[in-house]
Amino acid sequence: MTSAGNSDVVARLRAAGCVFAEDEARLLTAAAAETGVALESLVARRVAGSPLEHLLGWAEFHGLRVAVSPGVFVPRQRTAFLVDRAVELIHARTGHPVVVDLCCGSGALGLAAARIAADEGRPVTLAAADIDPIAVECARRNLTPLGAPVYEGDLFEPLPGELRGCIDILLCNTPYVPSEMIARMPPEARDHEPRTALDGGPDGLDVLRRVAAEAADWLSPGGHLLVESSEDQAPTALAVLAENGLAGRVAASEEHYATVVIGTRPR
C-alpha cells in the first residue's frame, strides 16, 4: 500500500472514532495481505462497527494471539488480572492442578493460565465449556493444541462426572452487565458479541448465582472459583458465594481497572 493509501485508511478509521487508527490501519493491511480479503472490505466493515479482532481473526491477550471468530466474545485486556490471580493459586496447589474454564468463549483465560503456568514449571490439566456452539468451535481451535477438551452445554452440565469434586481452579468469566445497561454498551460489543456473553440479568449477577450454587460440588477441597465483577457488584457477589458455602475475597487492580471475586471451598 502507498503512503497516500495508508493515510486514507487512517483518516477513515479516525473519522469513525477509532482511537488507535494508525495501529488498526497497519493490522488491517497485514490481515488483507495474509488472508487475501480486500483491504477495502476490511476497512468498510471496521468503519461500520465490526470489532477489529473479528476482522483480524485473533485478539492479543496476555501476550498470546488468541483465535477469535465473528460472533464470539472478545477477551478484554483487564481480564489478564484474573488470569494472574489464577496462576498464583495454581502455584499454591500441590500435585498436578486441574483447571476448568467455564463460560470459556474463545478459551482465552484457560489458554493463558495454562501456558503461563507451564512456562513457570507448573503444568495443569485443562478443560473448558461454553453454551454457544460458535464459541466452542473457536475455543477448540485455541485449546486442542494443548490437549484440552472443550465441551458444549450449559455451565457444569456438559462436564464429565470425573471432574466433580476435582477442580482446583475454576475460571468463570460470567456475564455481569446488568440487562438495562446492554443498550449503553459500545456497538462493537452490543451488536457483534453474543447477548449470552454480556447480559447478567437485572443486577448482572444471575449467572454467577447459578455457578455458585453448584461450584462447591465441583471444586476440590481448597479449590478456588474466580469470577470478574464490577467494583459495585463485589459485595453482593461475596454474599452469593457465602450463601453457597464458599469463603470469598476480592482482588482489585487500579492499573487494569479490574475486580476479581474469589471463592474457596473449605478443606
Listing every helix as H and every strand as E from the N terminus to the C terminus, the arrangement reads: HHHHEEHEHEHEEHHEHEE
What is the helix fraction of residues, given as a range? 40-55%
Flag low-confidence runs.
none
* Proportion of residues in extended strands: 15-25%
Question: Quick one: biggest sheet?
Answer: 7 strands, mixed
User: Spatial order of the strands in the main sheet?
Assistant: 5-4-3-6-7-9-8
Structure classification: alpha/beta
Number of DSSP E strands: 9
Per DSSP, the total helix count is 10
Shape: globular
Distance between the termini: 61 Å
What's the overall average pLDDT, rounded? Answer: 93
Q: Rounded to an integer, what's the Rg over CA atoms?
A: 19 Å
Defining traits:
alpha/beta; two-stranded antiparallel sheet; 9 strands; 7-stranded mixed sheet; single chain; 267 residues
Can you characterise this structure?
It is a single chain. This protein starts with a helix and ends with a strand. The protein contains 10 helices and 9 strands. The radius of gyration is 19 Å and the shape is globular. The relative contact order is 0.11. Helix 1 crosses helix 2 and helix 5 packs across helix 6. Helix content is 40%, strand content 20%. The chain is of the alpha/beta class. The strands form 2 sheets. Strands 5-4-3-6-7-9-8 form a 7-stranded mixed β-sheet, with helices on both faces. Strands 1-2 form a two-stranded antiparallel sheet. The mean pLDDT is 93.
